[in-house]
Amino acid sequence: MKFEVTILGSSSATPVYNRNPTAQLLNCNEKFYLIDCGEGTQQQLIKFGLKASKIDFIFISHLHGDHYFGLIGLLSSMHLNGRIKPLYIFAPQAIQEILALQFKHSDTTLRYELVYFAIDPEQPAVIFENRDVVVETIILNHRIPCTGFKFTEKKRLRKLLVDKLEAKNVPLECYPLLKRGADLTLPGGETLLNADYTTDSAVPKSYAYCSDTLFDVAYFDSIRNCDTLYHEATFLHDMLERAKETHHTTALQAAEVAQAVNAKKLLIGHFSSRYKTLVELLDEAKSVFPATQLAIEGTTYEI
Amino acid sequence: MKFEVTILGSSSATPVYNRNPTAQLLNCNEKFYLIDCGEGTQQQLIKFGLKASKIDFIFISHLHGDHYFGLIGLLSSMHLNGRIKPLYIFAPQAIQEILALQFKHSDTTLRYELVYFAIDPEQPAVIFENRDVVVETIILNHRIPCTGFKFTEKKRLRKLLVDKLEAKNVPLECYPLLKRGADLTLPGGETLLNADYTTDSAVPKSYAYCSDTLFDVAYFDSIRNCDTLYHEATFLHDMLERAKETHHTTALQAAEVAQAVNAKKLLIGHFSSRYKTLVELLDEAKSVFPATQLAIEGTTYEI
C-alpha cells in the first residue's frame, strides 16, 4: 500500500527563492489528503503533475495565511473544472465563514458539497477514520490555535498463502475469514490453523505533521514512535530567541523532538526567507538526528 | 516619462500551462500601480524581479477570485517584510470585509495603513489623481459588478529651450512660469513670447484596462482614443455563445472594440484554459485590428 507525502510548499511566511508557502499532498493507498494549502498550491499541483480532482480531504493546521491562502482558489478551480463529488475540510471553525464570504461576493454556488469539520484546538482527538487511515490532531503551541495531524495506517488484513490453501482445496468463500485471522475447520473435520496458512500484514506506519510550533514537550506524547515526523524548522539554532518570540522551532530543536519521540525519520521544512540555501539547516538537524531530510518541493517521501 | 505595463497573469478563471490568473503592474513615472491580483501575484513579482514594496496603489476590477485571491497574501507579505507606508486600495466595497476577516483570524495588525476606496460599480468616475496620472473607472458588463480602469497621463509642463533663455540672461526664478506657458517681460521691457522659448511637452497617453466583460457598446465612450487598450479575449469567436453565456469576449470582438474606439494598440489577455497555445487568438484579433499583441507574462509593454 502506498503511503507517501509530496511536498508542495516549504517556505515559511512569505514565498521566496522559488519556495512556496506550506502545502503537502499525502497519498495513502491512492486516496489523497491535502495538508495545509498556502497561496499557489493549485499552481504547484499543476507544476508537479498532480491532480487536484483526486483530493477528497483537506486538513488545515491554523489560520496563518501561509497555511491556507491557497484554499479559496483551489476550491474555486475544482468548481470551475466540474467537480461534483463532496470535499471534506478539517480546519479551524472560522474557515467556513471566510470561504462563504468570498463565494458570496463572487456569486458562486459550488457544484459540489463542502463538508466542514471544525477542529477543537484544545483537545487532541481522532477527527477522521476510513478503511486506510486514522487521523488524530496534535495540539501545537503557536501564536494562534494550531493543530498538527498524525496519520496512522490501518492494520491491513493477513496475507493468504494461496498455494497451501489450494492444495487443501479450501473454498474461496473461506478466504475472507482467514484474512481476518480465523482458524478453519474443513468439512472432513481437519482444522487449519490460521498461522500456518496466512502471514501477518505489514506493520502500520504513521506520519506526524507538526506545522508551526514552539518546541514544547506537551505534544510529544501525540507523536511518539511515528515513522516519519515532519517538523517545522524555521530557523537555525543561533536564532533561538527569534524562534521563541515567533513561536517557531529551530532545526536543532526539530531534531531533538524527533530523537525524544523516537521517530524513525525526520523531514524538516517551513524555512525562513533568510535562508537562501538550506544545507546548514540540514547539517544542524543531522548533528542530533542523522535520519533527517529536507522537505524539497516536488519531492515525494515514503513514510 | 515611463508609462508601461508588465503582465503578471494572463489566464482566465484557473491557472494552467504556466499561465497565472490576472494581474498587471503599471509603471507611470516610476510609481507603481497594481491592477488586479490573482492568486500567485506575489510569486510572479518575485519571479520577474519586481519589488512589491514599490507598489502604493492597487486597483481591483471585481470580486471573481481569479482577479483578487492573491491580494490577501500580497498584503500579508508586505506586512511581514516591514512595510510601514500606507497602501491605497481601489476595489469593490466588500474587499474590506473580506480582508478584515482574514486578518482577524490570523491575529494580524498591519504595521502599515490600508486606505480603502470603494468603487461605485454603476457610474464611471475619476477615482484617483496625482501629479502623474488620472484614473477613471470603466463600467463593464459582467456577471457581477465589474469596472475597468483608464489611466491617463497628466499633461507635462512645457520644455524650456535653455540655450535661448541663457542668451537672454533670463533669471532661473522665471523658469517655472515659462514651463507653465506664460510669456515674460524682462526688466528692460522686452517681452519674450513663450512659444519662442519653450516647446510643448509630449501628448499624454492613456491605458484602458477592460478586465472581464461582455462585448457592449455602453463602455466604448469611456475608452475612446486610448493609446493602449488591454481587453480580455477569453475565447475564439467560434465560442461566441459560450462567451455570451459567461459574460466574456472573443478575440475577434476585442479587436472590434479596439477598432471602434480608435485605440492605437490592443493587448489581449485572460485566455481560457482550453487554449494551450495562443497564436490562433492573436491571428483572429489581428485579422480585424493588426496592431494587436498577446499579453505574455513577464513582458513589459510601452503604452
Automatic annotation (TrEMBL), chains A, B:
It is an enzyme of class 3 (hydrolase). The gene is rnz. Its cofactor is Zn(2+). Zinc phosphodiesterase, which displays some tRNA 3'-processing endonuclease activity. Probably involved in tRNA maturation, by removing a 3'-trailer from precursor tRNA. Zn(2+) 1 binds at residues 62, 64, 142, 212. This is Ribonuclease Z. Belongs to the RNase Z family. Keywords: Endonuclease, Hydrolase, Metal-binding, Nuclease, tRNA processing, Zinc.
